[in-house]
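Two records follow; treat each independently.
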Amino acid sequence: MSLPSSFADLALAPAVLKAVAELGYEQPSPIQAQAIPHLIDGRDILGVAQTGTGKTAAFALPLLTKIDVNDSSTQVLVLTPTRELAIQVAEAFQRYATHMRGFHVLPIYGGQEMRSQLRQLQRGAQVVVGTPGRVMDHLRRGSLQLNKLNAIVLDEADEMLRMGFIDDVEWILEHTPAERQTALFSATMPPPIKKVADRYLKSPAEVKISPESSTGSNIEQRYWMVSGTNKMDALTRILEVEDFDAMIIFVRTKTATVELAEKLEARGFSASAINGDMNQALRERTIERLKQNKLDILVATDVAARGIDVERVSHVMNYDIPYDSEAYVHRIGRTGRAGRSGKAILFVAPREKRLLYAIEKATNQRIERMDLPTGDAVTKQRIDQFNLLLTTTLTEQRNKLDFFYELLADFSQTHDVSAEEIASALAYLCQKERPLQVKLADIVAGSDNDRGRRNDRGERGERGERGDRKDKRERGPKRDDIPMDTYRLEVGRDHGVKPGDIVGAIANEAGIDSRNIGNIRLQDGHSTVELPSGMPKETLTHLRKVFIRSQPINISLDATGASGNYEKPKRRPHKGDRPARLGDKPARKPRKSKARD
């Protein structure tokens, strides 16, 4: 079946088509062309597509076509994993419904004043977009009525799973009318999400956009091999030379967002932090400043940046490499959206090379190594900016220069100096705080020689004469290959702790994907957990203050199991020995065995 080539072929309502045309949309993206006809026909949808493919329009446009604006009851409910994404989706609905008189959309999420949400719900909104926790709050209060609900959308379902919301999502689904349309969109389809789809979707139409056609093709990706403590200096050089409009810099922790933003501000860049500790009003103001060209750099954590779609974001900088390749895809998806081009830069420490390989394998793309800008390159960039400033001033401020012209002409005659000499002195004064001539010490990048060469089939071999060996590294990294350290938590069975509690707390507070949390062993008074090696000091400091079951975990490196890389036991492990996952039942005590752990 041939796909529609224009939005006019998609049976959308005239008011919606008019808004689409005014927004400059010409041709449906693959996800839109496939999903919209099914949603208009009333079918359930199971969509697998990466971020940035246009999936918001894929469900918003057809559902708006079916909205009854004369009825203020909630007819469509959209669940999103984060506040930012809830706002983004609500704004998209509003843009597409600009010609639908009487239409109202309402985002509801934690961190926003409850009284304001209660008033707006009482007035009525045909579309409600919310995070699972706040939607549950309103359903329990009775302030959100779903008796006239026609459709529910689960947006970025895999992210809701990773954040521990999947049980909440199922609870909400069970409190919706049985006769309703359901659309589930996810970048990946892990078993728990497939289970939800099988249980709650009725004969869904499956729409899948392959990663090759949905991400990365319009994003130039490069990496720099970090050496020692030179990350900040390297970042500064890149910011000096890269021609970027706006940039999002990703770090792993909330503390790092503030520290890095302050350092960038001190170096003359317009930067601000965004993280989960900021109140929602401040977060919204910060994003609005980015949209209005009042801010150039946003320093963010993965969760805080979810849902940000700002057209002028031309670059994404991975200052801290993510532990998970899917997180990387979501990060770089903040640029190059809806067909626009973008650039992504990744800092990789030598001990993090396996994470780089994992990202390349998952995205099916080679990430090219970059060289840091030299002092001469920075000097040239500053001179070009200085010349541009002079040209702009002479062109746009000419009528304001007469006083200064006469002042300097008098100075030239009185002191018998040329105009060039005066201009040189003034230029020197102007650039004292930011010298045009830059002398930078060399930053030697970390070595990645064992990154390997590719043979004729595109496979990697080892360096030198070892290229013929069938080493494991030829086959690409596995998640099990991530180096692990063992940590002790001062909570255990006596406190009613379950493995899922530990996974949820660490995943949410440290920003570590749950799949990168290794074996958890519960004892009576304490527990141990395996986490990726090289955890930043600030992350551990933050985790020490985290509570599980009303008990501080006081995490510390376990002296008995902190030998570095985790080796799988030679014996076949018991079922209870495997790494815990979100939603696991409490692990049983392992059977007694003569084998020693």
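The next record belongs to a different protein.
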Amino acid sequence: MKKIFHNIVAIFVIIIVFLLIIPLPTQMLDFLFITNLALSFVILLTTMYIQEPLEFSVFPSLLLITTLFRLGLNVSSTRSILSNSGYAGEVVKTFGSFVIGGNLAVGLVIFFIIVLVQFLVITKGSERVAEVSARFTLDAMPGKQMAIDADLSSGLINETQARERRTKIQREANFFGSMDGASKFVKGDATISIVITVINLIGGIIVGMMHGGDIQTVMATYSQSTVGDGLMSQIPALLISVATGMIVTRTSSDSTLNEDVVKQFTRQPRVLFISGLAMLCLILIGFPPVQVIMLAALLMVGSYMINKKMKAQESQPQLAVEGPPVKQEVTSDVEFYRNLDNVYNLLNVDPIGMEFGYSLLPLVDEKSGGNFVDRVVMFRKQFADEMGMVIPFVRLQDSGQLNPNQYEIRIKGESVAQGEVLIDHFLALVPEDRPQDDIDGIDTVEPAFGMPAKWISSDQKIKAEMAGYILIDPTSVIITHLSEVIRSHADELLNRQEVKNMIENLKKVNSTVVDDTIPNIVSVGDLEKILKNLLREGVPIRDMETILETMSDYSATIKDTDILTEYVRQSLRRVITHRFAEAGQLKVVSLDAGVENMIMGSVKKMDGGSYLSLEPDIIQQIASSTTEKVNEMRKVVQTPIILTSPVVRIYFKKLVDQFCPNVTVLSFNEIDPSVQIQALGTIEIPKQE
């Protein structure tokens, strides 16, 4: 039984082929006609309850199968009508007698009206919408792909989410392309139905006359069968046509069609009230007053009830969405600050804060349709999944000291970055191989990465996408800038309380390693220092279990947290390798052995740690050689990596941060053996003659 269910579609298609060849008994025809009608209702209702077209992606194939099914039934019923003196089953007879109702002319007119409505209105409209949807979906693919690449590069989504979005875009293109072709089946089905109806009527009259029947009896018998057969074909076809139009006009939504219609019709109660007044005016020109007054009263009462419900919802208190609730100030500042607790509140410093000019407030205000807070929440989730740290809340507020289009990012109360966006424009990143003056716009610099860009208006959007520009909306520009600032200051945002929260979270899955290590072997303060060292160099701290176990192994003999960090990094080699390697390959610049020996010979150890003591001219030579190699490497890879021996890495990293801060320095022990290392050069200093 299970195998039959899994192959039900293939079996159904084979049955359709047999319908075209094998004569069927009328009882079987009745059952198949009812099955066709039920299947059409199921398909129509399914298109009304889905939230986006891709939820019913098999619809183009179903359109072909149901069309073949109806044609097979038409052939079988035609065979029965012509061979059984106009009898093709009770279903056909019932439909024919019900529609004709004793009047042949009226029945035929109603039948042809139904066919023409389907052919000229629904089918033709669905075909045109499917064609336009397919064209616009294909034209929009490059822009959607660029938007995915922009979100991926800015860290708003990960690789898995990007792959899912790309797959969805491809499925949309395939779906609407298939719908463009499949809609032709519906048009052909309506055409052939008219032809089959004419054949049944004319052929039936000829067959009846050949068997000696009188013209009146023959016309009544075969016209009834023809109309019944045609309706049993056209009504399911009409339902499928409506379903086709429904699915190609359906846009993506968070709810079904029924919910969307009710929600959007009830958003404007004033419209219902004015419509009710307009209906009352129809009485003045002679419309029946009872029916008009009933409908007008229904519209007005509905308007009153909806308006009352909306006012009740607006009067409810709004909850804060980002950050703790802000206390309302009293009328007198003197009275407010008589309370010392209120004065102490002034000393609190927000970990992350953002201030906006007044023109940018609609991006932040949810009542105005802004989704900035939601984007911050999603970035918090993505950053926790990537780096293993939960960033604190972001304090959002307006500022009269900024320009209207400016925003400012603050870390612990101090400004660390500023930017400027145009709320009604798109930021277009300029491709490297195109001149900057081929698109009209305002020249600017992308705030997060410093790339050349332009602010272009909405009417330039399609032209810019076709020219290869990557377009970013203003909210995404600010979120990308904020995400990069948080990544670069993650070590500052990690505090003692957050470390304790992480320890408590680890206790839920592995309480043994926490109880054995903290605070007996490792203090919370030392753990915080090591986690900050890792975050400072972009190393994720999700694997707290490995970090604690490594610290437990070496803390008894090593008290220097910088050296202890090196051992932790080596234990996290797979994490580090996965973060910096691309396609199983690591492109690096190595450090010359002579430079390494020179650095190690200059290390001075003290009770509080160790430091590097080199001659200024040697430092200048190392800086010049490193800068030269890094600049060459930036032409090949996005993130330059310098590879050193384990004992030198920490000292060289501190040295190179002074003149080339955004360079990754790794040691051999931090790279997984499965990764292939490709050396692009060597950092060395010229030998003294």
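Discussion point: Residues 316-321, 324-331 have pLDDT under 50 and may be disordered. How would you locate this feature using only the token line?
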